[in-house]
Amino acid sequence: MTSRIDARTSGRFLLRMSPTLHHTLRSAARAAGLSLNEYCVRRLVTGSVVHQDAAALVSRAAAAVGDGLAAVVLHGSWVRGEATTGSDVDAVIVLDRTIPLRRSLYRSWDERPATWGGRPVDPHFAHLPADTAISGLWAEIATHGLAVFDRDGRLGAYLAGVRSAVADGRLRRRTAHGQPYWIDQPVAS
After folding, report:
1. 101: alpha, beta or left, given left = phi > 0 and alpha = psi -120 to 50?
2. What is residue 136's predicted lDDT score, i.e. its pLDDT?
3. Beta bridge partners of 71
4. Is 176 helix (H, G, I), strand (E, B) or coil?
5. What's the DSSP call for residue 183?
6. What is the rounded distance in angstroms from the CA atom of residue 136 to the CA atom of residue 132?
7. 129-140 pLDDT tens trace
8. 8 A C-beta contact, residue 148 and residue 59
9. Would you say 120 and 89 are in contact if contact means Cβ atoms under 8 Å apart?
10. Could you tell me where the beta strands, DSSP code E, fall in the chain?
């Protein structure tokens, strides 16, 4: 069923939101090189939903690293559905390579920690790998991660490549003492 656009429809509407969500959207729009309006229209068209905890986490990460924030992805026991009552939520805060990885990022985070669903967020600051080598952390994130922010799609593209390596049988997941690890196993020709 198609609907006709009423001649009285202006294409405008006013939307009220929390200051945290507004800051998150404005930061993401700036990082994408778009106006806030264009960014929001694109997000609405693609059906993306902004979760309140995700908005707060991305806003906190942006406050910690500024415009150098490239992506935020959750991983670990909470994402896998294996969290216990004492579990935290692991988050990788992906930075542009222009931002050095320093202990001060963690100290700054500890001054104003974030939560997700009432659980503390344990941040891990990282850069996307510059080469094709795949570490166990990125393999785990690719198969059991939840991206909540990806400024320019580079995280998604990298993780898709990692998933391809898993699907092709090159990377295999193993477990020792309840902890997952990955082995890079060349596929026989």
Report:
1. beta
2. 84
3. 94, 150
4. strand
5. E
6. 13
7. 887 778 888 988
8. no
9. yes
10. 69-75, 89-95, 115-116, 119-126, 146-150, 171-176, 179-184
CB 34 within 8 A of CB 155: no
- CA-wise closest residue to 148 among 110, 116, 126: 116
- For residue 171, pLDDT over 90 is answered with no
For the sheet containing 119-126, what is the strand order? 115-116, 119-126, 89-95, 69-75, 146-150
List the helix and strand counts (H, then E) for the chain: 7, 7
Q: Each residue of 53-89: pLDDT tens digit?
A: 888 898 899 888 888 899 999 998 888 888 899 999 9
Alpha-carbon distance 162 to 132, whole Å? Answer: 9
Longest dimension (CA), the chain: 66
Give the chain's radius of gyration (CA, Å).
19
CA distance linking residue 62 with residue 71, whole number of Å: 10
Q: Residue type at 134? A: I
